[in-house]
Description:
This is Pyridoxal phosphate-dependent aminotransferase. This protein has helices spanning 2-5, 21-32, 45-59, 75-86, 103-108, 128-134, 157-167, 197-200, 209-212, 227-240, 246-255, 260-263, 265-280, 308-319, 347-357, and strands at residues 8-9, 69-72, 92-97, 113-118, 139-145, 173-177, 203-208, 221-224, 295-299, 321-322, 324-325, 338-342. Helix 13 packs parallel to helix 15 (347-357). The protein contains 15 helices and twelve strands. It folds into two domains: 2-18 and 264-363, Aspartate Aminotransferase, domain 1 (Alpha-Beta Complex); 21-258, Type I PLP-dependent aspartate aminotransferase-like (Major domain) (Aspartate Aminotransferase, domain 2, 3-Layer(aba) Sandwich), CATH 3.40.640. By secondary structure, the protein is an alpha/beta fold.
Amino acid sequence: MATEERAINLSQGFPGFGADPVLLDLVAKYTREGFNQYAPMSGIPQLRERLAEKTRRTQGYLPNSETEVTIVSGATEAIFAAVTAILRAGEETIVLEPAYDSYEPAITLNGGIPVYVPLNAGNFSVDWEKVKDAITPKTRLILVNSPHNPSGFVWSQADVDQLAALIRHREIYVVSDEVYEHITFDGLKHISLGSHPELRQKTFVCGSFGKTFHVTGWKIGYCIAPTELTAEFRKVHQYITFSTVTPIQYALAEYLEVPERYLSILDFYQKKRDLFVKGLGETDLRFTPSTGSFFQLASYGHLSQIGDREIAEKMTRKLKIACIPISVFYSDKRDDKIIRFCFAKDDAELLEGLDRLKNLAEIL
């Protein structure tokens, strides 16, 4: 609809700007030099080693690059392969809602049963008592996401510790979607579940080079898990994609040799977030600034009670600015009158979109 209406697209979660030319040149270099045949199923050793080192530098633990790190064709594949590796038919997976739309299909396609636990209204934090109450003898897996899509909520150390305590004496595993690991704001730090000694033994950490380096179309991600879980994960990965595009792996391996290239992502998106919320404050929408990811939620319930899908369509057609209704992230399509914007766009596009949002009252 955004394309048809020539609207500013602040809906889909992909960057509206290009990648570092250095990275693009590296891909061209390795393509020209003939690195165009199958890569090893688990990923080229150089990239797995650089990723392990990046993990040590940013999260304080060093996974074994040979037996605990796997390069895959996007974090969506990593999540699906992890769920497939651990979940058996008839078993339950706890999903915290609102949730990214690939979680439920990964569960149900493997014969599993999704059990939905709503996040706290307002700030989208986890109600750990509700999670505890949702656990049954059939619970096999908990699927979590921080920094969170769509809310931008970032887990604290207390959240990580509570999850660890909850599954300590249970045969329950975790799939942790951490694709926005390098995008946190206002001094908050992303805490990977892999950095927790107990959780590390039961967790598949799923990440994305595409989200980090503004190349989502390359579909290249990874999974970090203990040796025993990685062995099962690779059995699935081998028959989904077998291996991931070779020259891009070599390019990323060389690119990661300079830590500043991923450490600087935080400041880059902090400026984007600050620009967007400053302008959003001049509109009629209500919001709390996002603390992570490249998404910002906004509430309009004080202005109108029309459905979030309807308002998203009206904004696209009449204001020429596209957003996402949050009801699509819930299994029951609950409508809390909240919409989501993606601010991973060029500044000029963001400013124009914010200017158009000032006219929101005209379409309500």
